[in-house]
Amino acid sequence: MLVMVTPTSCAWRLRQVTPTTETCSTPSCFSLRCSFSSQRSIKYAVLGAGFAGLSVAWNLLRHSSKESHICVDIYDEAGVGGGASGVAGGLLHPYSPKVKLLWHGDECWKESLSLLTVAEGALLKASEKGILENHEICSCAIIKNRGILRPLVNLKNKDTMTENAQNCLGNCRIETINADVARELVPNLSVPSNVAFYMPEALNVNAQSYLQGLFLACKSLATNSSAAGLMYREFRLHKKSVHSLLELSDDYDAVIICFGAQIAFLPELKQKLPLRTCRGVIAQMQLDDFLGEGYPDHSPSILSDAWLAVRGTHLIDLGSTWVWNSANYSRYVSIDESSEAIKELLPKASSVYPNIERWSMTRAVGGLRAMPPVQADGSLPLLGCVDELVSMNESYKKYWLFTGLGARGLFFHGLLGKLLAEAVIARDENMLPNELTSWKHRIRLR
Q: CA 7: distance to chain centroid?
């Protein structure tokens, strides 16, 4: 009789064996195996295990045809969240600095919330089963604090921001409040203009915990789908470098490039994309117990010229610097760089939260963002098929791009990862919004 075996690759094969007591010999079982063996195996390579890569991987696993065997391989030398995504500040909301709703704000917000729920569920299940290898991740909730407060620091923007706030989403409200109400939320807050904008449903996300949860969700989706016997899914992480896209050309049906600033190391795309790099340093601040009460448990995080992302009553992340055209990809921050960062960030933070001056910096982390160009709808990531930039064959739709998340990766990655995965599956770039692919037309005109 025929029995299916699954080697380390995704190709399903048939071999001839002698029936045993563990081998199903019923007609229905034989029929199921024959059905599986006749299905096509489709292999996807996703480069990058940050916000973009994991969102694309999740959506490829979830939305690919049930009639096909699907294999998704993620390549990232640094592992899950090893790049800039893993050190992101994590303040999640759908508004610009002038509290105007961002491009497709409603859809992006909903997709981000959906993926957060997925990741939380996966992390909780893994914790209950005791299978989390990283004990630090195990102890970190994905969402630490709810709500974000933005004091108005420039009176010339007051009318614009007040008007924008009235057009907020119903599930992420903006309340315009005075200084007294703001200080009830955050004691000792400085509100020189007597106006602040409070987003009670906005979130403070632990980026590294979230990415680990989403990775576990991808693994679980692949495992559970295959175990159910209805469709076959495989999901693997390869902690190795990819030096050229052509390395993968023979092994995969599609290659989705989800690197951020490290995309510059791919020779096929080097200096071909309208991206700028920007290094950001975040100072991790701590308040010693003997210095008095810490940050109140239920108080919101703060957005201003510098932001304060609350991690606990005595722990706050303070960010972020903006060093344009940097080539420093390292998370490591030298003593000199951290000193310069705190000199820049502390005066900005203390102008709205004076108590931060009593806190001390315990360490600093850095990341290099890939910043897209500004257009009419703001700074939008770059998506699309890039066969014409990689090879001479433009008809197959093999190489795809998702980069330039900039400082809004947590906000954009959910919706855009879904849209790109659907376009990759259908091999149809026209499924993507024009605003996300218009960069291709601009570089052709150079």
A: 31
Q: What is the pTM of this model?
A: 0.89
Alpha carbon distances (Å) from 288 to 140, 285, 300, 361: 21, 10, 21, 11
pLDDT tens digits, one per residue of 264-306? 999 999 999 999 999 999 999 999 877 778 999 899 999 999 9
Cβ burial 197-221 (10 Å sphere, 16+ → b, else e): bbbebbbbbbbbbbbbbbbbbbbbb
Check if the beta carbon of residue 80 is closer than 8 Å to that of residue 49. Answer: yes
d(CA 42, CA 277): 34
The DSSP call for residue 106 is H
Within 13 Å, how many C-alpha atoms sit on residue 350's CB side? 14
Query: 285: part of which helix (H) or strand (E)?
Result: strand 276-286
Identify how many contiguous H helices and E strands the chain contains and give both numbers. Answer: 11, 20
> What tens digit of pLDDT does each residue of 122-169 get?
999 988 888 776 655 544 689 876 799 999 999 999 999 999 999 999
DSSP 8-state class, residue 11:
-
Instruction: Kindly state the tokens that stand for 240.
Output: 């190795």
Phi, psi of 306 (to 5 degrees): -120, 155
Cβ neighbours, 10 Å, residue 277: 19
Helices 207-227, 51-63: axis angle to 10 degrees equals 20
Q: Apex CA 391: angle with CA 385 and CA 393, to 5°?
A: 75
